[in-house]
Amino acid sequence: MNKFLAVSSAAIASLLSFAASAAPGEYWEVTTKMEMPGMPFAMPGTTTKVCIAKGGEKDPGKSTGDKDCKATDVKTVGNKTTWKMRCDHDGEVMTGSGEQTTNANGYDGKMQFSSSSGKRGGNMTMVFSGKRVGGNCDPEEQQRAMK
What we know:
Elements: H1 2-17, E1 25-35, E2 46-53, E3 69-77, E4 80-89, E5 92-103, E6 106-115, E7 122-137, H2 139-146
Antiparallel strand pairs: 1-2, 1-7, 3-4, 4-5, 5-6, 6-7
């Protein structure tokens, strides 16, 4: 299950960066909470400040933070975006889907992942929200730091 958590964290970091190449960015405060059935305790939510390319908060398909995770079937209707996700980290494959609703200064969403590879499979749900806090930044700088 630890490998599953590591893969999940990488996928989440990838999705939350939403970086688009060469676009100016702005700061967002992103809160995530993961839930995994069978865990002996509830994992606490975390809040981080990230740089997101302007407009990138609406398109998880522009995520380039993790080359091993691919968003597909990205569809937007009004202010709601849905997608499917597949991550492959060293043979640990995770698949899932997500949805997000955006407004002028924030977004709320949910992703569900499952893994059937490795020693033990598992499921995970991540609930997240983002709030625009402003200030200019370079989303590519965050990606360079991740590499």
